[in-house]
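Structure, all two chains, one model.
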Amino acid sequence: MTAETWPTAVLRPTGRARALAAGLPGTVIQEGVIDAPFDRVWGFVADLERSVPEFDVDVARIRILDRDGTRLRVRARSSWRMAGVPIGFDVDLEDGWCWMVSRPRLYVVAMAAEPDPDDPGRTRYAHLEGITVRPRALARATRWRTRHHVASDVAGIERALGLRP
Amino acid sequence: MVDEATVRRAQRGDAASLEAVLRDLAPYLGRICGAIALDAGDDALQEAMVAIARNLGSLREPAALRGWARRIAVREAVRAGRGGRAVPVDPATLDPLGLDPRTVVPDGTTAVEVRAVLDALRPEQRAVLVLRHLDGLDETEMAEVLGVARGTVKSRLHRARAAFRERWTA
C-alpha cells in the first residue's frame, strides 16, 4: 500500500493566495470569477512584460532579467505618478500562480488562477498585494490604498481581456 | 522540509518564508485532509492552511511545525468530514486505534479499495488510520493529536477492533 492510493486533497492557487493573505496583515486579497477561460486569462497574466504595465497603473515597464525554470528575476519601473522608481522582484511563475517578492522584501504580489469548476468557460482569480513590513499599524494604515490598487489591477485585467470597457 | 530559520522568519512576518512554509506543508497536509475528509478534503486543507498562516506566530518551537500543523489539519479535516460540525472527538468512536492498517488495507490494495475502507469509517476513525499509516504515529502520539486520553482510548480498543475487522472482512 502506498500513499498514492489514498485520497489526496489539493491546495489550489487561489487557496494558496488566501492562506498567504491570512498570514500577512499588510496585504489585501480580492477574489472573484473572470468571465473568460483559464488559458486566455493566464495566457495574458503570465506574460508579465506585457500584462503588468497594461493592467497596473503604477507600473510603466517590466523587464525579465533572468529566468531559471519557474524562477524569474525582474525589474519594474514605476509610472510617473510613482516617480519612475525601479524595483526588483524575485518571481515564481507557474501555471496559475505568480508570486512576486520585492527586493528588499517590502512588498509582495500574488496572482492566482484556476478554471472555475462550475463553469470551465470561466476562471477563478485571486489577486493579492501589500506591504510586509512591521509595525502592523503601518499595514493597517495602508490597507485602504492597497485595496483600491488591487481593485484597479483586477479591473485592468478584465479590461485588457475585453471584458469591460 | 523547510529549516527552522525559515519558520522563524515566517513567524516574524517575512512573506517569502511564509510562502515557503505553506508550500512545504501543503502536500503533506493534503494527504491527511484527503483521507480524513474525503470529498471535503480540499475545503479542509484550505481552512487548515488559513489557520496555519494566521496562527504561525503562536508556534513556540519551530522544530515542532509539522506536528503543530498536523493537529490543525486533522481538526479541520474531521470537522469537514462531519459536514462542518465542530463536535469534540468521542474516544468511543476511535475503534481502530490499535489496529495495524496493513491488516485493513494490505499491500497491493487499489485506490478504489482504500476509498471503500475509508467510506465505511467515521472521520475520526479515518484520522486514526491516516495517522498510523501515513505518519506512523504510535497510540500516545495519536491520542495527543486527536485530543483524547490514551488510557481512555486503549480501554475501548480491544472490543472495537474485533467489531471493525468483522465489518471489513464480511
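Chain B touches chain A through 45 residues (CB under 8 Å).
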